[in-house]
Amino acid sequence: GQNIDQPTEMTATEGAIVQINCTYQTSGFNGLFWYQQHAGEAPTFLSYNVLDGLEEKGRFSSFLSRSKGYSYLLLKELQMKDSASYLCAVSNQAGTALIFGKGTTLSVSS
Amino acid sequence: SQTIHQWPATLVQPVGSPLSLECTVEGTSNPNLYWYRQAAGRGLQLLFYSVGIGQISSEVPQNLSASRPQDRQFILSSKKLLLSDSGFYLCAWSPPGGGIYIQYFGAGTRLSVL
Predict the structure, then answer these.
(1) Which segment of A4-8, B27-31, B58-62, B72-76 scores lowest on mean pLDDT?
(2) How near does any CA of chain B get to the CA of A76, in Å?
């Protein structure tokens, strides 16, 4: 079967650092993706990992451990506009489909 | 640059009525195209994907269908809507060929079936 788990909700304060975890069990793997989705809007692509390790893009970093079926998204210097849902998704072996988790709703307060 | 257009933005339809949602992509050729549904409290569910004109793969059996009449046009249809068809429908595209398939989403259609 295919399963992707993320925490449902997280809260943090402005300027802080938050780590959103994602564990997955899928048949086939061709990359792990993170998307941001503000309420009522479409998801926007943040980052992806194919190989183990850390990928850094500005205030956002994503980590992958394929042997553990584990990834996290790290958000630094949190801003109010970072309040959104963060979706973890795994690409199947053929790269033809993304399997999404239910998303983690992050609330940033001042 | 590539852009993806999806319409309408919102739609209210009675149970049993037909449905047609359209998605078009500009600035690329032979994209992979996808239809997703996001129901309240649930994750994005892949409904259909297409790697070329007339080539449709269905991921979830339901009363919906998809067609790709032109290279950059993807249509989601239903002959008779059910209450359970309500949700946020998203079209997405990714570049053709091999490699990492980053998918880019349209603005979505919020469908309410009453």
Answers:
(1) B58-62
(2) 23
Give the 3-state secondary structure of residue A94.
Answer: coil
The pLDDT tens digits of the residues spanning A5-53 come to 999 999 999 999 999 999 999 888 889 999 999 998 999 999 999 999 9
Reference B74, options B96, B52, B58; nearest CA is: B52
pLDDT at position B99 is 65
Q: What integer pLDDT is reported at residue B41 of this predicted model?
A: 75
Rounded Cα distance between A25 and A86, Å, is 19
Count CB neighbours of A36 within 10 A. 20
Quick one: closest CA in B to A49, which residue?
B100
The answer to whether B104 and B5 are in contact (CB under 8 A) is no
Whole-angstrom Cα Rg for chain A = 13
Closest partner residue to A45 among B51, B99, B104, by Cβ?
A: B104
Asked if A72 reaches chain B (Cβ–Cβ under 8 Å), the answer is: no
The overall average pLDDT reported for chain A is 94
Judged by a CB distance cut-off of 8 A, whether residue B58 touches chain A is no
Residue B24 near residue B4, CB atoms below 8 Å = yes
Ordered DSSP codes for chain B:
--EEEEE-SEEEE-TT--EEEEEEEES-SS-EEEEEEE-TTS-EEEEEEEEETTEEEESS-SSEEEEEEETTEEEEEESS--GGG-EEEEEEEE-SSSS----EE---EEEEE-
